[in-house]
Design a protein that fits this description.
heterodimer, A: mainly alpha, two-stranded antiparallel ribbon, B: alpha/beta, Rossmann fold, 4-stranded antiparallel sheet, 10 helices
Chain lengths: 377, 249
């Protein structure tokens, strides 16, 4: 990275962003029918989580095995609003208590719990989608990083939190919908989210939000804070004894990762039409880490490709060999760790980019041979 | 010794740290004057590095006091101690290998040290000039864009010294700055340190007696966590106790 030109985007960054934008906004919508497009929209909601992990894990060295918690909290905040709208007294007239969500009625609740009340407001719900998970991440971050808990210990604790969260959601069936989650979501301010046109619009909204998060991540990485994260990963003590309160930076990046995951979760709820504890626990949280690892934990664009590829493979293979998919996923993870530690982005930078550059040079186009998605930049 | 003498930059008094009953540093007192270069020597396990760890907050003391310009360092967090004006270089070169020499120095530049400041930090001309100036001092002016991982061992040591210099600390603590250096690098480092200490106090841990003689104002000999001898190089070298436990063999 040169000293003089320290801009937000290098030429290669710009090309990378443009290619991804073309794929998400042009190629996929043209190539896929609404059902498949909606499926890819769902995959892309995981890209938000993987993107957050690139910042936390790839740049900052903080491995969280509990990102599903934040994905879920964001998704649940959105689902609570949609569920309340779907549970109007007219829609729920057959219940013993009309006007409350169906699962509450089944669990003999006769009034809406007080903490559900504010979710009647869309504005409140949208704010809560981000604020609730970030606040939770902040508390975890302060409790862990101020006490200098890090590395494997932090990973295990986040995993425990994911397990606890699932148990809590399932156990409090009357308040959360239990193991089924919050289902049967219909409209957003009267706009039916189940129609094809709604699904297409939501796909694009999702894509735009993803690009907003990508830009934020790019800004963070190119700022001095991004370089401090890398420095912390390599030599935490040196950063501390250079006058930085290391915990503050870890808390910040962990909160950013939580915010991204939460936005993804909310978009998941909107596009898929429900939210359940099966997206919160240990297994989905670890899968999210795999998306990031496969894409390349040092590359924000790689994270998006990783989420798309692994989920596409999951759908394709589990349609034909449902019992083999988990083995496939495990093998993929081992392959990434053993052979391609920098994931797809690493493979691209090492093998593909130089070839493209050579081809272009031969064709008379003068492009710099430096690879895109350079690790640790 | 006069207590609370305002002329001292650093006053260490009764400093003790006990690890499960073992006193690595035991009731240690010493005083550092402005512009003094104090060298701490002593056999392995004497507690030299632990003393520096205690001063910079890396290890928590069991008892005693470390007073730096009227501030009690033992009550402060590591980053607050740095901002008070104490810089510390570690024994093994600690540089950020994935970053360039320029970026290594930039992170130590004393601006934008909180989250918001780091997000909005701008690499302006003042920053670039200061980094260029420091790079020249540490002989790395032609390697600013090089990744730190590709530097030689000696160059990494210089880079870490540069990272401290850019903070302009009043008290600089160096743990074996010439360990693993070639003779030529050693000479250059001695010259560098002599230039640096002109306007600040320095505490150096070192084994190389030739190097110590080159830079020391005064020498403290540690043995089993206590001061064995203190004074000029000449005096310490001729002290029979020092010869017995350290220099003799």
């Amino acid at each position: 990275m040169s000293i003089a030109s320290h801009r937000l985007f290098s030429r290669n960054d710009l090309i990378g962003f443009a290619v991804l934008a073309a794929i998400i906004f042009i190629v996929l919508p043209l190539a896929l029918d609404t059902f498949r497009l909606n499926l890819f929209g769902k995959y892309l909601t995981y890209a938000f989580v993987a993107l957050g992990l690139v910042l936390c894990w790839g740049a900052g060295g903080i491995l969280s095995l509990g990102q599903g918690v934040f994905f879920g909290l964001g998704g649940y905040c959105m689902a609570m609003f949609l569920k309340l709208e779907a549970s109007s007294p007219e829609n729920t007239a057959i219940q013993s208590t009309p006007g409350i969500p169906d699962f509450m009625d089944w669990n003999q609740l006769s009034a809406l719990p007080w903490w559900w009340e504010p979710f009647h407001s869309l504005t409140f719900s949208i704010v809560a989608v981000v604020v609730v998970p970030v606040f939770f991440a902040f508390i975890i971050g302060v409790a862990m990083f101020r006490r200098r808990v890090g590395g494997v210990y932090f990973a295990i604790i986040t995993q425990a939190i994911a397990a606890i969260m699932t148990i809590l959601i399932i156990g409090q069936q009357g308040y959360t919908g239990g193991v089924n989650g919050i289902t049967d979501l219909r409209t957003l301010k009267g706009w039916d989210i189940r129609t094809d046109s709604a699904k297409e619009i939501l796909y694009f909204v999702n894509g735009i939000l993803l690009f907003a998060c990508l830009l934020a991540a790019q800004y963070i990485r190119k700022s001095k804070l991004g370089r401090i994260l890398i420095a912390m990963r390599d030599q935490e003590d040196r950063v501390r004894f250079s006058g930085y309160d290391v915990a503050d930076f870890k808390i910040f990046v962990f909160c950013v990762g939580a915010a991204f995951a939460a936005i993804g979760g909310a978009m998941f709820t909107l596009q898929v039409g429900f939210m359940s504890p099966s997206f919160v626990g240990i297994v989905p949280s670890i899968e999210m880490v795999i998306y990031c690892a496969v894409g390349g934990r040092l590359s924000i664009l790689g994270a998006v490709y990783g989420a798309l590829l692994v989920n596409w493979a999951k759908t394709t293979f589990s349609e034909s060999f449902p019992e083999l998919w988990l083995f496939g996923l495990g093998a993929l993870f081992i392959a990434v760790v053993m052979a391609f530690p920098n994931g797809l982005a690493g493979v691209y930078a090492e093998h593909v980019a130089p070839r493209i550059a050579r081809l272009l040079r031969r064709g008379g186009v003068d492009l710099p041979a430096t690879p895109d998605k350079t690790p640790a930049e | 010794m006069t207590i609370n003498n305002p002329n001292f930059v650093l006053m260490v008094e009764g400093l003790t740290v006990s690890f499960d009953g073992f006193k690595a540093v035991n009731d240690l007192s010493f005083y550092v004057e402005p512009n003094e270069c104090r060298v701490i020597i002593g056999p392995n396990g004497a507690g030299k590095t632990t003393v520096l760890d205690l001063i910079c907050g890396r290890t928590k003391a069991t008892a005693g006091s470390v007073n730096f310009k009227g501030q009690e360092l033992l009550k402060m967090r590591e980053d607050q101690i740095v901002h008070a004006g104490v810089g510390r270089k570690f024994q093994t070169p600690s540089v950020y290998e994935d970053l360039s020499v320029f970026e290594n120095l930039e992170i130590s530049y004393p601006k934008g040290h909180n989250v918001f400041g780091a997000l909005t930090f701008r690499r302006d001309q003042q920053v670039k000039d200061r980094i260029a100036e420091i790079a020249e001092t540490i002989f790395l002016q032609d390697l600013l864009e090089e990744k730190a991982a590709y530097l030689s061992h000696g160059q990494k040591q210089w880079l870490e010294i540069g990272m401290l210099l850019i903070q302009d600390p009043e008290l600089l603590m160096l743990d074996e700055p010439v360990a693993g250096m070639s003779v030529a690098e050693r000479k250059k480092t001695a010259a560098l340190l002599n230039r640096i200490i002109a306007d600040r106090s320095v505490i150096v841990i070192e084994h190389d007696m030739g190097f110590v003689a080159d830079i020391a104002t005064r020498v403290t000999v540690l043995h089993q966590g206590k001061t064995l001898s203190e004074g000029s190089m000449e005096r310490v070298q001729n002290d029979p106790k020092v010869i017995e436990v350290y220099l003799g063999h």
